[in-house]
Amino acid sequence: MLKFKNKNHNKIIDKTSFTPVYYQLVKILEKEILNGMMPGDALPTEHEISVHFGISRMTVRRAIAQLVQAGMVYAEKGRGTFVAKPQLDNLIFELDGFYAETQQKDMNPNSKLLEVRIVKADENIFKKSSIPIGTRCLYFRVVRKVGSEPLIYETKHIVYSKKKPLLEAELLNSTWSNLVANNGNPPVRSQKTLQVKLLNDHEAKALQVSPITPAFSVEQVFYDIDNNPLGWGISLYRGDRYKITSHAGWAGENYSKGVDFENEQ
Amino acid sequence: MLKFKNKNHNKIIDKTSFTPVYYQLVKILEKEILNGMMPGDALPTEHEISVHFGISRMTVRRAIAQLVQAGMVYAEKGRGTFVAKPQLDNLIFELDGFYAETQQKDMNPNSKLLEVRIVKADENIFKKSSIPIGTRCLYFRVVRKVGSEPLIYETKHIVYSKKKPLLEAELLNSTWSNLVANNGNPPVRSQKTLQVKLLNDHEAKALQVSPITPAFSVEQVFYDIDNNPLGWGISLYRGDRYKITSHAGWAGENYSKGVDFENEQ
DNA sequence: CAGTGGTCTAGACCACTAT
DNA sequence: TAGTGGTCTAGACCACTGA
Predict the structure, then answer these.
(1) Is the per-residue pLDDT at B112 higher than 60?
(2) Which of B38, B194, B243 has the most A C-beta neighbours within 10 Å, making it the best mutation to test the interface with A?
């Protein structure tokens, strides 16, 4: 019997199952680690595991690789594989939902185009985005609402091409990267900066809040494959309405992560 | 000769090299994709690649798996493997540096303990952290500075155990998760919330800024393996000094990501 | 020295896609 | 039906660790 440090292991792998063997093993090892193993404890060797379950060592390695990827274990050449200490001090926030959350949920999301026009990039735009001075850009401002409540204020510049004129509906509904891709030269990378800012009078008015309301500022620059800037935008998210949650470590069943914008306090 | 859509491929794999074959192939494929392939284009089949380079299909699969992991390509059963469209609209910010950056850089980082005492968890603490009302907690407040400039204001509660008394130096210098681990019941997961807040008078005074300064608020709760809360803390980062940068898409050489706290604007 | 994880091979069978 | 990616095997050799 294979010993997982504290107790005999009696799980079995069903080779006829539709779920892959390596994945069954991942789940077995996860459970074994969660129930009674401590950081630093050694897992059985790959050879032991493969013999015990009657599977190939390559399959065992695939399962372990997945646990390494998840940060649950680490392997050391010539020594063994060990339970890792959960990494809890690094903070990773995913802001996918910043946009998506407002869109779903039959909350009547809607947007208002405040201004559109063609501008030539000036010193300021160049400094922020490295778009060369004089470049013709499509400039527009949008307020995004849920119901009658404004939540996001966006200011964007897109390097202009006559190829395809953009319709108002596109400006409001396309994703940022799709808009930037408009001229056929697709963006392949983007640089983002997250800051906190106090809204100025103008922004506060557009968002219908008092001018001293704090806000998340997300600034993005998109580049094509040759590192030419294609677009630059700043989105302001009302700080009184948005918070970002994140989770780290060995997730239990109740894993969650996302953005709320309907919060107390 | 293997055709990578646009041109003949003349790279070669050195099987005697110290760098693994699969990794050489990853780099070759990356270069091939960056130079002239577009999202949606098909890669050569795994079989074609293995024959062309004279390597096993399993090794080819390992290289491709790495590209899938990186989000550069995607595979479809029965169809083939294709170049992916870079995901640029989801925002992922890593705040590892929030702490680390201030520590390095011979910038004379230093911390000041404002208060320590034992408290019993009240209604408010319970609501924020789910630490049961009445639980004895170590409560302390710290200001972290670089040189003479205060940057971070922290308020923390740790579920108290008599096991190991904590020294002042530990409170100031240990990582948050190490402090929480003090009582021998290690934290295995944490929940975090990022918000923007206006500093109140008390916080602003501690950070030596005007009270209407906005700040990042990072709130963390640590749990043990049985989902018992072990600690709860709020860190306030001066919004005028911190910004968080992030990068997405097909990284060129000049990949960068992190936290700056010495910024213009 | 024996044991470990890291790499790699040359097959095999499968489910799926397209024709 | 032919071709694709997904899984799995039973070996092999290597570099590294520890006694």
Answers:
(1) yes
(2) B194
Determine phi and psi for B117, rounding to 5 degrees. Answer: -165, 170
- The residues close to strand C, meaning Cβ under 7 A, are A 43, 45-48, 57-58, 61, 64, 75-81; B 15, 20-23, 54-59, 62, 76-79
* Single-letter amino acid, residue A61: R
| Sites in chain A below the pLDDT cut of 50 | 1, 5-8, 252-265
In window 10-29 of A, residues with CB < 7 A from nucleic chain D are 15, 20-23
Among B28, B30, B37, B27, CA closest to B7: B37
* CB < 8 Å from A in window 203-222 of B: 212, 214-216, 218, 222
Q: Which CATH class is domain B98-261?
A: alpha beta
Q: Is A190's CB within 8 Å of B214's CB?
A: no
How much is the pTM? 0.81
Which nucleotide comes closest to A68 if you measure CA to C1'?
A: C5
Fold equal for A21-83 and A98-261 = no
Which residue type occupies B107? M
**Reported CATH class of domain B21-83:** mainly alpha
Cα separation, A187 vs B86, whole angstroms: 8
What pLDDT band is residue B256 in, cutting at 50, 70 and 90? Answer: very low
> Which sequence spans correspond to the domains of chain B?
21-83, 98-261
List, in sequence order, every beta strand (DSSP E) within chain A.
3-4, 7-8, 73-76, 80-83, 92-94, 109-120, 136-146, 149-159, 189-198, 214-223, 229-238, 243-249, 258-260
User: Which of B36, B243, B29, B237 has the alpha carbon at shortest distance from B145?
Assistant: B237
| Pick from B89, B192, B212: CB nearest A177 | B89
